[in-house]
């Protein structure tokens, strides 16, 4: 079981909170798609397992013109055993979702769409420079359903500048009323280098206090549970049986190959990542040179990756597996370190698994720090 990730680094414009590598330029779409297919040919053998999930993410994959997108999807299908694919996701901006677009991706085997909704308040969307409106997001969901896509995920952001608690309640309520099988809700983070960060530094906007962030997060958890969702990862919620398989495999340490600029790969032992330069990527792939950087992880770094990915999920760490992988000394350390968190109920030990409690997930970074080496 392995995942194939394909990164599309193009967007309509730059959202002010985003620190991902992306560009609005469109002159390289065709060459980029050709490079992705060639990179697959050069690197597929890094992963020995069969592909069971494919995820086309970005950036905004739906900005790619249909002929180029079709060439990518068809090219990948020619190279893999498509009968083994359990989930094939593409991310989309609601603005790009038309009946024709949905029919096209459905006819090519895509089974799941992740929509960047972010908010159902048009002022908030305009402030962060999203190109779509709230009504476009609702239309997109209708179009997806009408044309055969039921596995839909929606992203929301909370803690946006100027977003009152009432506005957050409205956006969350609207999303839940749509009954999507899956959604992700992220607390806004201020990343150095973004326009939003600069606005914060200049005092033009204010960050939520920790108490306000917790209030919104607790409201989110309560509402999601009442609506029947499982909170299975820090920011991810699903109706029973609708977890994102591709992303869940990342969090359980399964191998994946990442194609395209800034994509990461993990073959079960070694992590690799591609650089952030589209032109450089196209040039080196055209010479059939793989341009990824190999991360020579130490045992400690491997341990830390294991702990961090496990603790972000509601499944947590399987303590027998941990003992087997990292030895008796580390196991004793894990148990000792967890005691105060267990007493304060910030962590739980259930059925042989050590996990961060749901209400403490928002500050999971601070807890994880104690468990890494
Ligand atoms: S659409 Fe997504 S990747 Fe593109 S700029 Fe906005 S947040 Fe970043």
Task: Give structural notes.
42% of the residues lie in helices and 20% in strands. By secondary structure, the chain is of the alpha/beta class. It has 2 domains: 2-251, pyruvate-formate lyase- activating enzyme (Alpha-Beta Horseshoe); 310-371, no CATH class. The chain has a 9-stranded mixed sheet with strand order 7-8-6-5-4-3-2-1-9, sandwiched between helices. Strand 7 and strand 8 (236-238) form a beta hairpin. Helix 1 packs parallel to helix 2 (66-79). The longest helix has 25 residues, at 319-343. Bound molecules: iron/sulfur cluster. Residues 11, 14-15, 18, 20, 22, 58-60, 116 line the site of iron/sulfur cluster. Iron/sulfur cluster is lined by residues 11, 14-15, 18, 20, 22, 58-60, 116.
